[in-house]
Design brief:
Elements lengths: L4 E5 L5 E6 L6 E2 L1 H7 L8 E5 L3 E7 L3 E2 L3 E11 L4 E3 L10 E4 L5 E3 L8 E5 L4 E6 L3 E9 L3 H7 L4 E10 L1 E2 L8 E11 L6
Parallel strand pairs: 3-7, 6-16
Antiparallel strand pairs: 1-2, 4-5, 5-7, 7-13, 8-12, 8-15, 9-14, 10-13, 11-12, 14-16
């Protein structure tokens, strides 16, 4: 069985990215690939704000079907003099998006951008952080298994809920870990078969 795949070429015809699927029933949407390449997401969006940061999140697609692999781009802007934690060698709460588990939903690893080192002089500590605006990208697949299709049969809308979890610190205070709820609602179409 061949695996479906997509190659992204630059104007000179060089391959700059490639996306292959593990199952023929599951396919990245065009909008999802463009979102992963840094393009604007045009699906349902949500904004939120806390004392530590602002969040603008948007999904790649408005319409999904069983087998669709979509992306959620989560743009995070820390408040002035604030930082949140990136993956690294420390014990602080790393910023992450946690989709609520659903039997029809497959969660892929969250994509993080490059981080920067923050030096905290009082503890002589260097940790991986985000101090400037950054974007996380979460890929999700609406499963096309017979079980998932039964669960989704007759539905015309689909809601994906999750939380953005993080710990923020400024130059003097480390604040308690915080969770920000994020909800996305999509139009759902059935899986089309030739």
């Amino acid at each position: 069985m061949p695996y479906p795949g997509t190659f992204i070429l630059d104007p000179a015809g060089r391959v700059v990215a490639r996306y292959f699927e593990a199952a023929y029933q599951e396919r990245s949407t065009v909008a999802s690939i463009l979102t992963r390449q840094g393009g604007a997401a045009g699906g349902p969006g949500v904004t939120a704000s806390t004392a530590h940061l602002t969040v603008q999140a948007a999904a790649s697609d408005q319409v999904v079907a069983p087998g669709s692999r979509l992306s959620i781009a989560i743009e995070i802007t820390p408040q002035r003099s604030m930082h949140v934690y990136a993956p690294g060698k420390h014990t602080y709460q790393v910023v992450t998006f946690r989709p609520a588990g659903q039997p029809w939903l497959k969660t892929h690893p969250l994509t993080y951008p490059a981080s920067e080192i923050y030096y905290f002089a009082p503890l002589d500590e260097r940790v991986e952080t985000y101090q400037k605006p950054f974007t996380l990208v979460q890929d999700l697949t609406i499963l096309a298994t017979p079980e998932a299709q039964k669960l989704l049969a007759g539905q015309t809308a689909l809601t994906i809920r999750g939380t953005l979890d993080y710990q923020a610190c400024d130059d003097k205070v480390c604040y308690a870990p915080t969770s920000v709820p994020l909800t996305f609602t999509f139009d759902l179409t059935p899986l089309l078969r030739p």
